[in-house]
Amino acid sequence: MMEATLDMTTVAKVNTATSGGREEFSHTISGTIGKPYLDGKDAKFFCRDVNVFYSGDKQAIFDVNMDIGRNEVIAMIGPSGCGKSTFLRCMNRMNDTIEGCRVTGDIRLDGEDIHDKEQDPVLLRARVGMVFQKPNPFPKSIYDNVAYGPRLHGLAANRAELDDIVEQSLTKAGLFKEVKDRLQSPGTGLSGGQQQRLCIARTIAVSPEVILMDEPTSALDPIATATIEELIDELRASFTICIVTHSMQQAARISQRTAYFHMGYLVELNDTKTVFTNPQHQLTENYITGRFG
Amino acid sequence: MSTTTEKVKATLGKRYAKEKRFRFYGLASIALSLLFLVILLTDIVGKGLPAFSSTYIKLDVQLDAPTLGVSTDATPEQLRMANYNTAVLNSLNTLLPGVTDRKEKKALKGLVSGDAQYELQRMVMDDPQLIGTTQSVWVLADDDIDVYYKGNIDRTLPEGDRRIKDFQLVWLDKLEAEGRIDSKFNTTFFTRGDSREPEEAGILSALVGSFYTLLVTLSLSFPIGVAAALYLEEFAPKNNFWVDLIEVNINNLAAVPSIVFGLLGLAVFIQLFGLPRSAPLIGGLVLTLMTLPTIIIASRAALRSVPPSIREGALGIGASKTQTVFQNVLPLAMPGILTGTIIGMAHALGETAPLLMIGMIAFIMDVPDSVTSPSTVLPVQIYLWADSPERAFTERTSAAIMVLLTFLVSMNLIAVILRKRFERRW
Amino acid sequence: MSTLGILLTLIVLAAFSYYIGRKRSLALATPMQRGGNNLHSLPSYYGYLVVAWAIIPALLVFVLWSTLEKPLLTSSMMSHIPAEYQDKSADERSLISNRILNLVHNPERLATADPLFKAAAEDYQQMQSLSNIIKTLLVLALAIAGTFIGLRHVKPKTRARNQVERVVQIIMIGCASIAILTTLGIVFSVLFESFRFFGQVPATDFLFGTHWSPQTALRADQAGSSGSFGAIPLFVGTLLISAIALLIAVPLGLMSAIYLSEYASPTLRAYAKPAMEILAGIPTVVYGFFAALTVAPLIRSMGESFGLSVASESALAAGLVMGIMIIPFMSSLSDDVINAVPQAMRDGSYGMGATKSETIKQVIIPAALPGIVGAFLLAASRAIGETMIVVMAAGLAANMTINPLEAVTTVTVQIVTLLTGDQEFDSAKTLAAFALGLSLFVVTLILNVVALHIVRKYREQYD
């Protein structure tokens, strides 16, 4: 009974927020709690006042500020529709591909403004790779899937180099042993978990600096999920990884820092341990204790 | 900077050039397709617009009894048979006296349309009191004269290369100077049937033929199509051999060349069942078979877009399956079904090939008065006229096309409006 | 009574039987408590039940009688003509029967007709009026008897609604089955006539012969009256024109679809798509007119200015205009298949840093390839079966050439030419049209079946 009442109040607050606008909301969420900035340290990604609007005035992200460090795994969690995926897609300008989507604010990769006129989305996406929720191998062979990026970007001078990149990427993604005898068979013929690792291999074949992962394991079974999680942990040595996840356990297992999004706001960003053991904000606590989401 | 960045940067210029080129090809394809449309339409409108006016010549006709060979108290039958031809000739001779050469005499008669004497006939039969008077009458000019006044015969060409000779030009200039030549709206085009003479040819019989044909098509294909769609979408068992066979057949028939339906009509309806050739009835039957797949496919899509909640709601309060479908689902799907039907009818209206097979290609002067009388339809009329060598028929063909396209555009507009008006987001 | 008269009478009878059926059920109903009654169904269902009993048997007999009347009367007439005509060949007998029927339909010619034919025609007329009387009486009697039988079924216990619904369902199944009947009708009509044709001209001569000149068949008894029916030149001509059309329609249609679905702004899409649909909605006879009177002379004069000799009815003109006609067809089919490629596929490619055109060329088109192949096959089937453009703009001369500047003829052109002339239906010439129709039907059927199968499999893959 007690819990149910609590739940009601949260919902009520959120509801006032949506109908009443930002003014009333701010007494619930006043800026981001925790440590959104990497003071003094050199951030890989630097995001200030990021707002995202969809077709017209529908706002999906409100004034998000955060830094993302080098070689860290940062997890973004929050209830469905909270904007975590939308925010993730800002970082390699994938939102450009959505009609009517507009991003404002300052996002820098290694100090370069990614929205700068000089900045090229193609180059940006080569530097900031992305793995999607549903494994989406291209309708090509396993080899061609991995070679897709290197071929596009002219990363290999000859066939031998390309073979090398493909083998290394598949090895890093932990897939090479399983598929080395059937590199020419279609990538769509693999199991779900293998497909997702193929997509990861495809992404790292371009040697990006950052890998964005949008709920990479939500379509997979627990065993495949465990394999991918191990893989992410290994990849941390070479890449910065931002992962959006639905599973709080996953965030706790693999990330160093965790960001909690709620209705388009970044509510709390802190060390993963702190977020899960001692959340500062009521909404975060409600979420991680399973009251909603 | 990493090596990736450098390598990618090196490729960018070339890749964006390719991107631009590809994008340009796409845009060019659309532009080219639409350019074809514009050329086609302007070509037809340019050719067809002049057909909406006709050149008339004013004659002063003496309707005296001896010339006509009748008196004021003649019976209608006598009036009908009277010699109006001579009256016309006399008036031309008075206007342009001194023509003796045989060839020129023939040309003189040929200045006005063969319809001139019938025009007089109509006048006199309406009012026999005109006999004995002299009347100023505007009569249709011959099609060559009409073509000349529409600027399609160049008088600077050598005489041998044009259909209007020098002596005719002298006459025409004289007539024009006397104010006896004028251009008026071409009512003949909309009020008459086909004719061998372009200036007398009209589309009315073809329009009426099209109307009867579509009437048959609509009254058969709409109920049958809706019933078939209802069965397939709402009642048919899934994974049933017959139902699958029906579906495969419908999808195939939608892509069978239309002329094959014409062969079916010829072999089955005419040869086997002995239905009358050239009749809108058979045309309608053939077009029904042709448009059924379109209507069934559109109706099924409309039925499918009605959400299951509507059906569950009705079934939940104890309505039978049939009651639910007829009283709840069908009305909601009706706008979509009507849209599909109108589009099917527009196809049927423009269809030509199968109708050639069943003899609707006949030369029809009279306006058909039932679904079994011989008739032609508008597209076939266009086909027939397009084959005629006379320049004046070319412009009438284009004008008939403009009429046909006007009908098609209005039908499609109605369909679009219907769709917009009743579009529902569930 | 005329057909219209009988139908109107039936409609009146139907209204009447509905009325009394409904009334009878109300009379039988005994009210129970709470406003209900003991009828199984609503009164109107009893009305419909009586209507069904009254109309359906009568209508069936009417339709059956009307379809069988003429063939039966004709055969009975032919069995009554003198024996010397009985022994003539089938062709001549059908000629005689046509002449008699002609007399029947044009009674004013009876006075001047051959006495033999006159007798037969008068005989026919008598039988026809007799048949009409019997038909009218039978249909009306059935309708009235049906009404009475239906009324006897009006009882509170009768499950009128279920029975009416059953009838409705059977009618609906009948309507849906028309699709099968149509296909069967097409197959049998072209097959039957084609077999008769192949009885006169060997199938191998037709399929592999390289000379086509049906026009030589002037008189039935003439030597070589069968003409030459080698269809290869027609097949070559058809393929040549279709190839030109596809060469134009496929790239333009596909690129338009790609641009519209991947690049175009919503505004451009909102205008360009309906404009393309206009192009699709223009009747083929209009395209034919455009091809014959505008494009062909243009190509001819352009060719001449380059010193080329161009036939006035060149394959190029017909093919070009046919291509324009097929562009919207190709583009809307491709549009559908391109839109069926999941967004995830595009995202994956963009996420790798591919440009739009790279994504389209290397991911979307390979992914949509089965669908595009299906669209191509449907477009090919459309081009092969297209009639009016080629009838108006392509020639009649059966040249065997692949030079697009020369005149060729096609299968459809020959079908139209053979069947719109004034010749006997049973001559080799008209039967040849059915053999051509058969080859056309078979080829387009195969293309359609394969294309529809590919497209369906493709859709299932991404559903």
UniProtKB/TrEMBL annotation, chain B:
Organism: Thiothrix lacustris
Principal location listed in the UniProt entry: membrane
InterPro entries attached to this UniProt entry: DUF3333, MetI-like, MetI-like_sf, Phosphate_PstA
Family statement drawn from the similarity comment of this UniProt entry: Belongs to the binding-protein-dependent transport system permease family. CysTW subfamily.
Protein keywords: Cell membrane, Membrane, Transmembrane, Transmembrane helix, Transport
Pfam families: BPD_transp_1 (PF00528), DUF3333 (PF11812)
Membrane-spanning segments: 24-45, 211-232, 253-275, 281-303, 399-418
Matching SUPFAM superfamilies: MetI-like (SSF161098)
Protein name as catalogued: Phosphate transport system permease protein PstA
CDD domains: TM_PBP2 (cd06261)
ABC transmembrane type-1 domain ranges (all copies): 207-415
Gene (name only): pstA
Localization: Cell inner membrane; Cell membrane
Keyword Zinc among UniProt keywords: no
Annotated membrane topology: Multi-pass membrane protein
NCBIfam families hit by this protein: 3a0107s02c (TIGR00974)
Automatic annotation (TrEMBL), chain C:
Domain ABC transmembrane type-1 residues, every copy: 235-451
Keywords recorded for this protein, A-Z: Cell inner membrane, Cell membrane, Membrane, Phosphate transport, Transmembrane, Transmembrane helix, Transport
InterPro entries: MetI-like, MetI-like_sf, Phosphate_PstC, PstC_N
Record-linked Gene3D superfamilies: MetI-like
Subcellular location: Cell inner membrane; Cell membrane
CDD domains for the chain: TM_PBP2 (cd06261)
Segments crossing the lipid bilayer: 45-68, 133-151, 171-192, 234-258, 278-299, 306-327, 363-384, 431-455
Primary subcellular site in the record, as a coarse category: membrane
Membrane topology, from the record: Multi-pass membrane protein
Protein origin, superkingdom: Bacteria
The keyword Transcription regulation is annotated on this UniProt entry: no
Role summary: Part of the binding-protein-dependent transport system for phosphate; probably responsible for the translocation of the substrate across the membrane.
Similarity field: Belongs to the binding-protein-dependent transport system permease family. CysTW subfamily.
Protein name (record): Phosphate transport system permease protein
Organism: Thiothrix lacustris
